[in-house]
Design brief:
The complex is a heterodimer. Chain A is an alpha/beta fold. Helices cover about 35% and strands about 20% of the residues of chain A. Chain A folds into 2 domains: about 170 residues, 3-Layer(aba) Sandwich (Rossmann fold); about 130 residues, Rossmann fold. Chain A contains 11 helices and 14 strands. In chain B, strand 6, helix 9 and strand 7 form a beta-alpha-beta unit. The chains are: A alpha/beta, B alpha/beta.
């Protein structure tokens, strides 16, 4: 996976394929879209199950509450849009008509993170983890690659709770295989080492940057990297174990530092096993246009920034 | 379906009892909304004691008609009607808005599972009704049950309501009957001062809905409108029910200041006396 020619697939594509599988496995699965059918990768489902697809137009608030009504009649609705609009614009409808109402609607937010790129800051959702994990009953998943997104989508359809699935737009290195196990709420060590000095907890596509940093430092500093794809419920055991083993933790996410996955990890460790921490993410700023690589570099979330944080932490 | 004079009188009397319970609940709760619940008593009575297919002994009967209350703040009339229909004990009405009560300040399914939805934040009820109707179409159950959606006029300020109305019109969801409580008030004043809604009927027509306008206190008109709605095959139907906020208690009627406050003890006594004597028509009691 460290090869320059590593296979790269958009995470949202894994979601689109997972949606078809979920639809094949359960006739109650339905999909709703707000004028972004192709872009959100709901197109495959629409082609396969046209009678189980609903187009609501550019109306994300309606999107969420219509899905709630369908769930009340036994459907398992997936609502798809850009993360900035859903769960961004329709947060209160998700909170009240889905979660408060206890309806198992699945919210897929595509184009999450800064690596949306040229579209610019309006379309770069870097607050979505914070606003979804704060809602009671909501499960929050941020897959690291297309294959994990596929599995997360199939798994989400089988739960009886609301789920938020965070999806990136850009092509992302495929780090897992079909055989890699996936279970909601279970974190996995992706880079092992004896007597780790630093534990890196990463979520989403930046996991690849964390793995590259660990590899580059392998002869100097022992690092373990944990893929935390489920942000809620948090795999507290895996996080505490890593903190106890390594004694230092760095969190890596393509999201605002405030309120994101790192905050969730800190909430857990402050209570159970406080250790020094560093947070890689966007530091209280909005995004802008650029290539994904330029933006990851500019906002300090790439391999270089992670290596600096490691060195800073073990000083 | 024609309705007999006896049935009309029976429903009017039931509505009066439901209004009495509303005042009694609000007196006990010491907070809550007065005008809207009193204004919708005749429509709630007609729905639960004549129109909708439901079974208080089997609240989760799958083929029951669905009732989605969007403007959750008028829940005293909903709770009162549910109690008079046998879903909850009448005595429980006095727990409204109290800690641990099933009768939350705004409806919450976690506490009272017979509710079809939790509601309070305005503008989202019709969307849920539309979702229910879309699911029923997918399952070929469109003609097995109807979806009733109760809306306020003030909540037309919310854009989401327009989104839902357009989606229902686009999909010609014939098994939805929406009812707009056109009482012309909202918290800050009269609707036409806060955010003009007229012509309300033209707006609904433009969204491809069949529109029926009625006097929301005339039982016969309410019954007729619900029956006609069932016969409209090519569109969803909205009934714009012109109501008097605070209806039944002269002191409260048409005064927007009664939107969001309960009566005090003295006002409550006066209201109860007025309702019990049917506005002074019955002289023998409570003089």
């Amino acid at each position: 996976m460290f090869d320059e020619k590593v296979e790269q697939v958009p995470i949202r594509k894994g979601f689109g394929e997972g949606l078809v599988q979920a639809g094949e496995e359960d006739p109650q699965v339905v999909v709703l879209c707000a004028d972004l059918t192709e872009s959100s990768q709901a197109l495959y489902f629409k082609e396969k199950f046209p009678n189980r697809f609903v187009e609501v137009g550019v109306a994300e608030q309606n999107l969420a509450s219509v899905a709630s009504g369908m769930a009340a009649m036994g459907k398992i609705p997936f609502i798809t849009s850009y993360a900035m609009f859903s769960p961004g614009r329709n947060w209160e409808q998700i909170r009240t008509t889905i979660a408060y109402n206890n309806r198992p609607v699945k919210i897929a937010g595509s184009h999450a993170g800064i690596s949306v790129g040229p579209d610019g800051g309006t379309h770069q959702a870097i607050e979505d983890i914070a606003i979804t994990r704060v809602i009671p009953r909501m499960v929050v998943i941020s897959p690291c690659d297309a294959l994990e997104a596929h599995k997360a989508t199939v798994a989400a359809a089988k739960t009886d709770t609301p789920v938020y699935i965070r999806l990136a737009r850009e092509k992302t290195p495929v780090m897992t295989t079909d055989a890699t196990p996936f279970e909601i709420g279970k974190a996995q060590i992706f880079w092992k080492s004896d007597k780790p000095q630093v534990g890196i907890i990463a979520t989403g596509a930046l996991l690849h940057q964390a793995l590259r940093a660990a590899k580059e430092l392998q002869d100097k500093i022992n690092i373990e990297v944990l893929n935390l794809s489920t942000i809620k419920p948090l795999d507290e055991k895996a996080i505490i174990d890593l903190a106890k083993k390594a004694g230092r933790i760095i969190t890596v996410e393509e999201h605002q530092i405030r309120g994101g996955m790192g905050s969730a990890v800190a909430e857990c460790l402050a209570k159970h096993s406080p250790v020094p921490m560093r947070f890689i993410g966007v530091d209280d700023q909005f995004g802008q246009s650029g290539t994904p690589e330029e933006l990851i570099e500019h906002y300090g979330m790439g391999k270089k920034a992670i290596i600096e944080a490691v060195k800073d932490l073990i000083k | 379906m024609d309705i007999t004079d006896e049935k009309v009188i029976e429903l009017e009397e039931k509505a009066n009892q439901i209004r009495l319970s509303i005042i009694e609940m609000l007196l006990e709760a010491k907070s809550g909304h007065t005008a809207g619940p009193l204004g919708m008593a005749d429509i709630f009575t007609t729905l639960f004691f004549h129109t909708i297919r439901h079974n208080p002994k089997k609240p989760d009967w799958p083929e029951r008609d669905r009732l989605v209350l969007s403007n959750g703040h008028i829940c005293p009339v909903y709770y009162s009607t549910l109690a008079h229909a046998g879903y909850i004990p009448l005595a429980e009405l006095k727990t409204l808005r109290k800690f641990g009560s099933r009768l939350q300040g705004h409806p919450h399914r976690d506490f009272l599972s017979i509710l079809e939805t939790s509601s309070g934040p305005l503008g989202s009820g019709l969307s849920q009704a539309v979702g229910m109707a879309l699911a029923d179409r997918m399952d070929a159950k469109e003609d097995k049950r109807r979806i009733y959606s109760l809306l306020s006029d003030g909540e037309h300020d919310e854009g989401q309501l327009w989104e839902a109305a357009m989606l229902a019109g686009k999909n010609k969801l014939r098994n939805i009957t929406a009812v707009v409580d056109r009482n012309n008030i909202q918290i800050d004043g009269f609707t036409e001062d806060i955010m003009p809604l007229e012509s309300l009927s033209e707006r609904w027509k433009a969204w491809n809905w069949h529109v029926i306008e009625i006097d929301g206190h005339n039982i016969r008109e309410i019954v007729d409108a619900f029956e006609k709605a069932k016969a409209i095959y090519e569109k969803p139907t909205v009934i714009i029910a012109h109501t008097i906020p605070g209806k039944g208690v002269k002191e409260f009627e048409r005064d927007y200041r009664w939107h969001g406050k309960p009566p005090n003890v003295e006002e409550g006594k006066m209201a109860i006396a007025e309702l019990r004597t049917l506005g002074g028509k019955i002289k023998s009691e409570h003089q």
